[in-house]
Amino acid sequence: MSSSLPLISHFVCIFNTFFVKTSYLDMKVIIVGAGIAGLSAAIALKRSIPSISIQVFEIRDKPSTIGGAVNLTPNALRYLSHLKALDRLKDKACPLRAIDIVSCRTGHKVSEMSFDVPDSDGHQALRAKRADLLAALTDTWRLDHGGEVMYDARLTAIERGSAGVVRASFSVGGGAPLSVDAHLLLGTDGIHSAVRATYVEPARKEVYSGVATANGMVAVPAGAHFGLPFDATAVFASRRGSLLLSFASADRADVYLGAVMETSEVSSREGWRALGEDQDAVRAEIFGRFGETGPLATRIADVLQLLPDWFLYPVYKLPPGGVWCKDQVMLLGDAAHAVSWLLCEMTGIYLSAYYQRRCHRKGNLPALPLRMLCSFRV
Q: How far apart are CA 28 and CA 51, in angstroms?
């Protein structure tokens, strides 16, 4: 808890100085990063206080499709429902009764993580394509709240202004600089956060973990299990690692594969498709781990052979310690704490952790960042 106290003190200062002078009903917010966390924050704040002004900026020139399939727990579905985004997603996702744990050595199921009993709101779990989840949030932000995302906007500077204002400068489309003033800036721009590097804590650098996820998506005959013992999602565990295999669409015609492997640091920090000899090396590595020994080897190999391309995503982490906010700038998600997303399992946790429904009552905005901070540990 002690590591959170400086952050709480920062926000006490922010709100004590800002809210004494003006109503937060008229406040302006900048969100840097239009991924899952950024759009969820925009929607949650707008639902809480419709009168506030929110501008969302994204460095990419279009919505990101980075990542494969994500596990959405009942908590995540509850908050997606609160954000009114769940209805745009649930018909595209695969219902998830449990995550089966299967031994590659014996070929038998040894355990499961069950979601079979609905929570108090009737939610179980879903496995969804990350791109579908992002599209649901983007449509909710755009259609329900009239929000926009300014794409191809690269953050170049953050400056502290006077009278409770922070100024962010962007290069949009490589053109003329754009400067925007706001009362609060949220950095939801991931592990390689420009907000952190530019303003909050430039000295705190991300560190390569030594491992990368290898994953991909393949179309299969609807519901094909290839003789493997699982329902919707399974982790096939061996002494050389674990392989995740999951349906990722409602019709079960898309299968997501994900594995963790050691590799030297790759040139792109956001993932790259292995090509040529590199593709062969990745494929050989994964076949060697999961497709050569044990009673399930042939069946697993049949699935692996269907995948045309493997994508490698290097996993970075932040060193212990550090801060999540400075003045009127706050970091959320991987920009702050870099929870490992090895198999894209953390998105559901992010959703449930950030937006506790009880924080969204009208007039409760000053408590919202403080409660969020209290929920985390560095």
A: 10
Which tokens in the block code for residue 224?
């094909």
C-alpha dist (Å) from residue 328 to 40, 56, 158, 301: 19, 16, 11, 52
25 Cα distance to chain centroid: 29
Q: Tell me the pLDDT tens digit for each residue of 137-183.
A: 999 999 999 999 999 999 999 998 877 789 999 999 877 789 999 99
Q: Which of 82-91, 187-196, 320-329, 341-350 has the lowest mean pLDDT?
A: 341-350
Tens digits of residue pLDDT in 6-29? 332 343 344 444 443 446 667 899
DSSP conformation class of 51 = T
Map residue 86 onto helix, strand or coil: helix
CATH number corresponding to 96-122+207-315: 3.30.9.30
Reported CATH class of domain 2-62+151-204+319-374 = alpha beta
Sorted by where each begins, the domain ranges of the chain are 2-62+151-204+319-374, 96-122+207-315
With CA atoms as reference, report the closest residue to 133 among 354, 315, 351, 360. 351
Residues 224/115/313/326 CA torsion (nearest 10 deg): 160
Nearest-10 Cα torsion for 313, 319, 31, 271: -10
Nearest-10 crossing angle of helices 367-374, 5-21: 180
Gap between the Cα atoms of 121 and 128, Å rounded: 20
What distances in angstroms separate CA 376 from CA 44, 191, 295, 327, 367, one per listed residue? 19, 16, 43, 19, 15
Helix (H) or strand (E) holding 106: none
